[in-house]
Write a structure and sequence with these properties.
Blueprint (H helix, E strand, L loop, with lengths): L5 E4 L4 E5 L6 E6 L1 H4 L10 E3 L4 E6 L3 E7 L5 E8 L8 E2 L5 E3 L2 E8 L2 E8 L5 E7 L9 E3 L11 E6 L7 E6 L9
Antiparallel strand pairs: 1-2, 2-3, 4-5, 5-6, 6-7, 8-10, 9-10, 10-11, 11-12, 13-14, 14-15
């Protein structure tokens, strides 16, 4: 069953659903069959109970939403490109973080670090914020300590950027936010 499988991927771009208790592979999926573009899976895989889906990225700029059937087989996979234009390079090794129906993922797009906010229901980009010229490879950390119904679940999303002098960067987001400054 979906709750009883391990998911992992690698540089070959193939996602594997495997039994945690035996040497049984339930299913495999070449993610390029979804996007038509070959990429490496260099991110972790996140499970979100609210959407009952797994999420990961490929280094060629795609975010994937993966649903698993009761038999451990891949049921449905959706994807979204993390750039605005397919003719520009996107590099992504960030493990997605999900809170309140929003997916947060970092990347490098069009010579700038970028954090994208994606709707988990529709898999459409709500907005993206960019900074500097350095790659953002980190996985976002979402602080929910200030989130309330009154402030539309306001969160702070922290990440690091691969540039001197280093440091921690953040955006402020909520269920009604449509843009942010880093």
């Amino acid at each position: 069953p979906a709750g009883e499988c391990l998911l992992f991927g690698g540089d070959n771009g193939i996602l594997v659903s495997h039994s945690p208790a035996s040497d049984q592979v339930y299913d495999t999926l070449d993610l390029s069959s979804i996007t038509g573009s070959k990429g490496k899976i260099r991110a972790g895989i996140t499970y979100d109970a609210a959407s009952d889906a797994f999420y990961t990225t490929s280094n060629n700029g795609y975010l994937y939403q993966i649903r698993i059937g009761e038999n451990g087989k891949f049921d449905r996979v959706n994807s979204v490109f993390l750039g605005d234009s397919a003719d520009k390079t996107v590099n992504c090794t960030s493990t997605p973080t999900i809170y309140n129906g929003r997916i947060y993922v970092c990347s490098y797009y069009d010579n700038a670090g970028r954090i994208s906010v994606i709707d988990a229901d529709t898999m459409h980009t709500i907005y993206a914020a960019t900074t500097g010229t350095a790659d953002i490879k980190s996985s976002p950390l979402v602080s929910t300590g200030y989130a309330t119904e009154e402030n539309h679940h306001r969160v702070y999303v922290y990440f690091t950027q691969n540039t001197i002098p280093g440091g921690i960067y953040y955006i402020e987001d909520s269920s009604v936010t449509e843009s942010a400054d880093i």
